[in-house]
Design a protein that fits this description.
heterodimer; A: 138 residues; alpha/beta; 2 helices; 5 strands; B: 224 residues; alpha+beta; GMP Synthetase, Chain A, domain 3; 3-stranded mixed beta sheet; 6 helices
């Protein structure tokens, strides 16, 4: 999971506490995990190191309102505002899961002015692996 | 008063009540046609004639509204899952998915809402497609052509007495909402820019003039 990335040392100065990454990344990847009850939006760089994230729950929605498309939209808006300051212009979107957040986040990204390179669907699909949970009876 | 002579009937009811025992018509939940009792109960007395009362043989049950909501939610889950996993449906929605291409999509289909009628026979599925015009048409046409297939798969997956008829409807509310928010954002940005300029040059009278220039139809921001 963690790729060994050599740190260009600021540690040697003896500074304690994390230094804010001031890297300007023109291109990034936005991961959207859209489940039925929540939506999590994470922005990483091309290699996968997380820059910032937000979710419907952290935006102040609680309970059933987290699953709504409006909450997904606010979460996306939050993330994009943080990241636009770092100068990101193009992005690729990776969508995981069913849920209403898929559409809402895409529209929010398009509205914000960030170029969408690609849209990929990376929902995990087993090649018939683990046994799935039992059917819900309704 | 003749129906009181007949023993209570057990009739199958499509809304999922396994054994619905017919009570005398004081029960509020069902509207049962009295003709139904004729076939299964005891002998018909010779003097009586039931022909005049045979209107429609269909049994209609109104299910519990809570159950209707639960069924709607379950159908939404099943359909979304099918869109993700079922190859036939994906190919119908996105014809280029069959080529592989490592899932680089041109349009994304989402099921935004499911409405079930109160007798659980008709299901309206609202579908929202993200993408250009052609992608939308292709997706909707593909879904509509696979309605029967979807109905059969849903019947296999869910335990319902009668699988409902499925209708796919295009949902435009996402787009409308997105457009409105884009316009509002643009207005807000322009207003804040005006405020900044106004403070710098110390003239605030310009704010009112520019409101006329904002044309609502120009607010659509296309990003490519």
């Amino acid at each position: 999971m963690a790729k060994p990335i050599p740190k260009i040392g600021s540690r040697k100065n003896g500074r304690i506490g994390s230094r804010k990454h001031a890297r300007k990344i023109p291109k990034g990847v936005i991961h959207v995990q859209a489940s039925f009850n929540n939506t999590i939006v994470t922005v990483t760089d091309v290699r996968g190191r997380v820059i910032s994230w937000s979710s419907a729950g952290t935006c102040g929605f609680k309970g059933t309102r987290r699953g709504t498309p409006f909450a997904a939209q606010t979460a996306a808006g939050n993330v994009i505002r943080t990241v636009a300051n770092q100068g990101m212009q193009r992005a690729e979107v990776m969508i995981k899961g069913p849920g209403l957040g898929r559409d809402a986040v895409l529209r929010a990204i398009r509205r914000s002015g960030i170029l969408l390179n690609f849209i990929r669907d990376v929902t995990p699909m087993p090649h018939n692996g683990c046994r799935s949970p039992k059917k819900r009876r309704v | 008063m003749t129906y009181l002579l007949y023993p209570p009937l057990i009739l199958p009811c499509p809304c999922g009540w396994r054994n619905h025992i017919l009570a005398p018509p004081s029960s509020t939940a069902t509207t049962m046609n009295p003709v139904q009792r004729r076939g299964l109960s005891g002998s018909v007395q010779p003097g009586q004639d039931f022909v005049g009362r045979s209107r429609s043989r269909s049994v209609r049950c109104m299910a519990n509204p809570r159950r209707v909501k639960m069924v709607a939610k379950q159908i939404q889950r099943e359909l979304s899952d099918m869109l993700l996993t079922d190859k036939v449906l994906q190919f119908a929605v996105l014809p280029e998915a069959s080529l592989g291409a490592d899932r680089y999509l041109s349009s994304l289909t989402t099921i935004s809402d499911v409405e079930v009628s109160s007798d659980l026979q008709v299901v309206k599925v609202y579908v929202s497609v993200f993408g250009d015009e052609r992608g939308k048409e292709v997706a909707m046409a593909g879904l509509k052509s696979k309605a029967k297939y979807v109905r059969s798969v849903l019947g296999r997956r869910m335990k319902l007495r009668l699988t409902p008829e499925i209708r796919f409807i295009e949902d435009e509310s996402f787009e409308r909402g997105s457009r409105v928010i884009a316009i509002l954002d643009k207005i807000k940005n322009e207003k804040s820019l005006e405020n900044q300029n106004g403070e710098l040059s110390d003239s605030s009278a310009h704010d009112d003039d520019n409101w006329d220039d904002v044309d609502p139809d120009e607010g659509i921001i296309y990003v490519d």
